[in-house]
Every structure is written in structure tokens, then in C-alpha cells.
Design a protein that fits this description.
Distance between the termini: 54 Å
Largest sheet: 4 strands, parallel
Helix content: 55-70%
Strand order of the largest sheet: 2-1-3-4
Number of helices: 6
Number of strands: 4
Structural class: alpha/beta
Order of helices and strands: HEHEHEHHEH
Radius of gyration: 24 Å
Length: about 180
């Protein structure tokens, strides 16, 4: 008799947990459906925005899955190397509010190998530092956009090898831990 009562209690507990989880899933799905409907009514909304990613594979793959995507780079008239290009990217992110921003940059400037091999002479060392100085504005933009995305509950991905010295730059280290 005791085994039967215990078994009935287990079934009752399972049914209670199951009904609570089912209700929570329904609430979550309703919230997501409402968000998707609201986003689809905004003409400028993007699911994915890629910037300075060389192959643009994510953008083309996103389109195959009916996701709204945009690829910002020199090939579409946004030169991140210029102040006007960086301002255009900021404006695009602010307007489109992409769910995911993928930010990439040339790693050759920040490569550990570059520092070890191409800085043997003072002139080469200065040339590398000049290239890095040019890139720091873009690194600042990357940190700014990552913070914006995180603060508004959206996502970002920075495509950069873990060995890159870009991760050691103050504008990047100060933004780490934002989310």
C-alpha cells in the first residue's frame, strides 16, 4: 500500500511540474512571437549585420534561411578605415538594431608573428605602430558597438584569433565583461 501512495505522489508531482513548465514555455513562446511580429514590422530591422568580414558567408547563409542580413564593408561603400565609414556603421547599427553584429578586422596588424618578425629594425617597428594607430579607431568602434549591443540585450561576435594583440588594447580590455 505504501508503494502505491508514493507512486501516486510521484505522478502528481510530475504532473504539477509538467504543467508549470508547459505554462512557462507557452509564455516564453508568446513573448518571442510578439517580438518577432514587432521586428518584422520595422523595415530597417536586421537579424545579422556583418562588418569587415572577408567572405560574407554568414550574410549569404542568413539569406538562405530568410533572415534579414546586411554586410557592411568597402564593397558596399562603407570604408571603416575612414571616420565617415565608421559613422555610417554606427548609424546603421543604431537604426537597424541587429540581433547579432559580427565584427571582423585584419589580423595582420595585430598578429603576434607580425610583432616578432617585422619589428627587427626601428623603421619597421615604427611602420607597424603606425598601422596599429590607424586601426585603434576601428578597435574603439568595435568596443563601442559591442557595448551597445550588450546594453540593449542583443548579441555581438568579434572575429579575431585569441592570440591577437588586439585583445590587449585598452579600448578592448575596458569593454570586456560588459556581457
Amino acid at each position: 500500500p505504501n508503494g502505491i501512495v508514493g507512486h501516486k505522489r510521484q505522478i502528481g508531482d510530475f504532473q504539477k511540474v509538467n504543467s508549470i513548465l508547459t505554462a512557462e514555455v507557452a509564455i516564453h513562446e508568446a513573448r518571442l512571437s510578439k517580438e518577432v511580429a514587432e521586428r518584422e514590422n520595422v523595415a530597417s530591422y536586421l537579424d545579422i549585420l556583418e562588418c569587415n568580414v572577408s567572405d560574407g558567408l554568414l550574410t549569404s547563409t542568413a539569406r538562405e534561411h530568410s533572415l534579414r542580413s546586411y554586410r557592411a564593408g568597402t564593397d558596399v561603400g562603407i570604408d571603416i578605415g575612414t571616420k565617415a565609414g565608421r559613422d555610417a556603421l554606427r548609424a546603421t547599427v543604431a537604426r537597424a538594431k541587429p540581433y547579432l553584429v559580427v565584427l571582423g578586422f585584419s589580423n595582420s596588424t595585430w598578429s603576434v608573428i607580425n610583432r616578432r618578425i617585422n619589428t627587427r629594425s626601428p623603421a619597421a617597428k615604427q611602420k607597424l605602430e603606425d598601422h596599429r594607430a590607424d586601426d585603434r579607431d576601428y578597435l574603439t568602434l568595435i568596443a563601442e558597438l559591442a557595448f551597445l549591443q550588450a546594453s540593449e540585450g542583443r548579441y555581438f561576435l568579434i572575429t579575431c584569433p585569441t592570440s591577437s594583440e588586439a585583445w590587449k588594447q585598452s579600448m578592448i580590455t575596458s569593454s570586456q565583461g560588459t556581457n
